[in-house]
Write a structure and sequence with these properties.
- 32% of the residues lie in helices and 26% in strands.
- The chain contains eleven helices and 13 strands.
- A six-stranded mixed beta sheet has the order 5-6-7-3-8-9, sandwiched between helices.
- The relative contact order is 0.12.
Length: 327
């Protein structure tokens, strides 16, 4: 059976992974991925993402729990799963002296029903590099080659581990378009990424891991909805914070004042912004440097990491920087 009655091609239940020294990298997680869906697995460094993906790819057995990929155990039934999946590792490790075309032909010989090499290389933008040796490729071009090899077998399920690392902005956008096209054609994609913008743009659903557990899951909008939106502006000349309408009545859940700059937090962005602008129009004043923005996935990610660190006694919110969480 390829999928259950709900159309899930990946099912994870009670998954645990404990290493030899007793370290528990994955602590009883569960999630599902539907056919033709892009699912992003995010997390702080050491959250358990790589350990989880290795189990999904069938590279090791779980310590406990259950995994099904296309209806099969990816470890004990590897022969039934592997020909129907594609895997893009963080680094392919191809022989440096081979050309791009030679590498692709070698890889195609290991794949059941491989697509034409030229077609796949064109697909990832390496059609003009067929005679170039792997060692002469840039970091971004090597990532394109890694992706090409993962696509040679026309996989039904595609695992992408940091797919756009090393790519420039144009290459990243091209890869996003290719991944969307694969999804639209019915391919199920599970990706890990440290680029939160990438997850926000690509993922139909996502899960955020922290210390071996899933801290949040849902669509990007559902995950970010748990964080307040923000409005900031500069008080008009001659006005003070006390001259503003009652903030609670505008749906404001918190605020900060720094000199003449006011920063509001709200879970009712439209209501707050509308009330604020109506007050400014009535008072015939201009709200300079007005900035209205909904919560981002990065804010949700950092909020989860900070809360988890504080609950574990690992430090205050100020101890976690964006770089530490998303690098």
């Amino acid at each position: 059976m390829d999928a259950n009655e709900h159309g899930h091609v990946i099912e994870v239940t009670g998954l645990r992974r404990v290493y030899g020294g007793g370290f528990e990298a994955v602590r009883g997680i569960g999630f599902t991925v539907r056919r033709g869906e892009i699912f992003a697995l995010l997390g702080t460094n050491g959250a358990g993402k790589t350990s989880t993906v290795e189990l999904l790819e069938g590279l090791a057995p779980p310590t406990a729990g259950r995994i099904r990929v296309l209806g099969h155990d990816p470890y004990t039934e590897r022969a039934a799963v592997r020909p129907r999946t594609g895997v893009m590792l963080q680094e392919g490790g191809f022989p440096s002296e081979l050309t791009v075309a030679e590498t692709a032909r070698m890889w195609a010989g290991c794949v059941s029903g491989a697509r034409p090499v030229a077609e796949v290389l064109d697909l990832v933008g390496l059609g003009a590099k067929t005679g170039t040796r792997v060692k002469q490729l840039s970091g971004g071009q090597r990532r394109r080659l890694d992706l090409a090899m993962a696509l040679l077998g026309s996989p039904e399920v595609l695992f992408l581990d940091e797919p756009t690392t090393g790519l420039d902005a144009e290459g990243r956008r091209d890869t996003w378009e290719l991944v969307r096209a694969l999804r639209d054609s019915g391919t199920t994609v599970l990706l890990t990424t440290h680029y939160l913008e990438e997850a926000e743009n690509l993922a139909d659903r996502l899960a955020i891991m922290h210390e071996g557990r899933i801290a949040a899951t849902g669509t990007p909008d559902e995950v970010t909805a748990a964080q307040p939106s923000r409005i900031s502006f500069e008080l008009p000349e001659g006005y003070f914070a006390g001259d503003l309408p009652p903030l609670a009545g505008l749906g404001v859940s918190g605020h900060d004042i720094d000199g003449r700059t006011v920063r509001l937090r709200t879970r009712e962005l439209q209501r707050t912004a509308t009330g604020l602008l109506m007050w400014a129009a009535s008072a015939e004043v201009e709200l300079r440097r007005l900035d209205v923005r909904p919560a981002s996935l990065e804010e949700a990610f950092l909020g989860i990491a900070r809360r988890a660190a504080e609950e574990a006694g690992g430090g205050s919110a100020a101890d976690l920087s964006t770089k530490e969480c998303v690098r």
